[in-house]
């Protein structure tokens, strides 16, 4: 079960990457905010249908959910704004790499302390080593991307 | 001179926090999904996100929303892809945790961006895959196995 979910998450990553290329090309003509708005609105329309036909939860409970849980949407929107802000200043490569480090570091901390009510998964040597390997991998990506910018 | 350095450092911190936000978003939606339902949480995100972006668009938008109807249809698929991504995460995070889920996402992102670049898909210029990137995917995959074993 868990391994299938991880594979699914890899698939999720491929979707995210394709999305950023696709949105990138749309936004050159339509504008950044316009493109982001369009992404959210199509997503909402699709999910509205999915919830109607396949939803087995209780959508009304959203109104009773603690406000801090509802604030997740601000983090999603915040991510978009922060990247829009950072890319023109430090470039796509540096922005992506900083973002990934933040993502990993926070992910491991949230697991370790069990923040936001999730299961606690303690930081051990395996997680430390895997974090280190990710940093080395990012270093490789940085080198490759720099070469690309220079040499094409 | 010093001011410029501080400014740069600030921007790096912003980018770092953008990543932190992604993890927090996933962690919270994982929880919300347990109470209100997974598809329902995902819907909440896109619905309220549309409202927020709608307001932003009204005040800050200077592009052309009407271009949507002239653009090639494949350029409109961003919403579909976003739905798949977030919904998968909402299912996965309560079971595998945020750290492992994020590493998987990053592996997928890197692998896909290599394919897109190599083939020159989706409006990008075709570029040969660099050996450093292959190394990076390899290291990340090992890292995923390590965190999972």
Textual characterization of the structure:
The complex is a heterodimer of chains A (152) and B (149). Chain A is built from 5 helices and no strands. With 152 residues, chain A is mostly helical. Chain A has a domain at 65-152. The N and C termini of chain A lie far apart (42 Å). Chain B has one domain (2-148). The radius of gyration of chain B is 19 Å and the shape is globular. The mean pLDDT of chain B is 90. Chains A and B meet through α1, α2, α3, α4 and α5 of A and α1, α2, α3, α4 and α5 of B.
List the keywords.
heterodimer, A: 152 residues, mainly alpha, 5 helices, 82% helix, B: 149 residues, 79% helix, globular
What's the N-to-C terminus distance of chain A?
Answer: 42 Å
Low-pLDDT runs of chain A = none
User: Helices and strands of chain B: which structural class?
Assistant: mainly alpha
Largest sheet of chain A: none
Summarize the structure.
By secondary structure, chain A is mostly helical. Chain A has helices spanning 2-30, 32-54, 67-70, 72-113, 125-151.
């Amino acid at each position: 079960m868990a391994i299938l979910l991880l594979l699914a998450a890899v698939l999720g990553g491929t979707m995210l990457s394709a999305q950023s290329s696709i949105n990138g090309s749309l936004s050159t003509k339509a504008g950044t905010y316009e493109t982001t708005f369009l992404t959210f609105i199509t997503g909402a329309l699709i999910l509205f249908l999915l919830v109607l036909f396949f939803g087995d939860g209780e959508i009304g409970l959203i109104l009773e959910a603690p406000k801090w849980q509802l604030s997740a949407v601000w983090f999603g929107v915040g991510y978009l704004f922060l990247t829009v802000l950072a890319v023109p200043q430090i470039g796509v490569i540096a922005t992506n790499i900083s973002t990934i480090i933040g993502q990993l570091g926070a992910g491991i901390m949230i697991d370790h302390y069990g923040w936001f009510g999730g299961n606690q998964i303690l930081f051990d040597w395996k997680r430390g080593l895997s974090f280190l390997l990710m940093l080395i991998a990012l270093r490789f990506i940085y080198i490759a991307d720099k070469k690309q910018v220079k040499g094409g | 001179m010093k001011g410029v350095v501080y400014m740069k450092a600030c921007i790096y911190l912003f980018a770092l926090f953008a990543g932190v936000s992604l993890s927090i978003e996933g962690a919270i939606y994982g929880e919300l999904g347990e109470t209100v339902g997974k598809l329902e949480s995902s819907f909440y995100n896109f619905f309220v996100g549309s409202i927020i972006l709608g307001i932003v668009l009204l005040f800050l938008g200077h592009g052309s929303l009407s271009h949507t109807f002239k653009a090639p249809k494949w350029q409109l698929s961003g919403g579909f892809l976003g739905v798949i991504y977030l919904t998968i995460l909402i299912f996965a995070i309560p079971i595998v945790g945020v750290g492992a889920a994020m590493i998987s996402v990053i592996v997928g992102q890197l692998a896909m961006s290599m394919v897109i670049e190599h083939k020159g898909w989706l409006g990008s210029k075709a570029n040969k895959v660099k050996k450093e990137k292959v190394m990076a995917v390899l290291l990340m995959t090992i890292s995923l196995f390590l965190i999972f074993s």
